[in-house]
Amino acid sequence: MKDNARILLLCPDESNPALLRDTGMLAYGLAKQGIAVGILTNATQTSNFDAFKNQIPVYKTQPSIWGDDFANSLNTILKEQEQIEIIHLMNCNESAASIAKVCHKHQVPLVGNIHNRQHLTGSKLWWFKRNQHVNALHEFQPLIVPSIALLEKARELHMSEVSFIPEGIDTERFTPVMSKRPVRRALGLPERGTIITSIADITPDNKQIETIEMCGPLGEHLHLVLMGKVQNQSYFERLQQYIAEKNIEKYVHILEPSDQPENYLKATDIFILLGGIEGRRATILEAQSAGIPIILGPSESSLALTQGNKSGVVVYPDNALSQQAVEKMITDPVYRQSRALEARPFVVKEHNYDNSIKHYIKLYASLK
Question: What is the pTM of this model?
Answer without folding.
Answer: 0.87
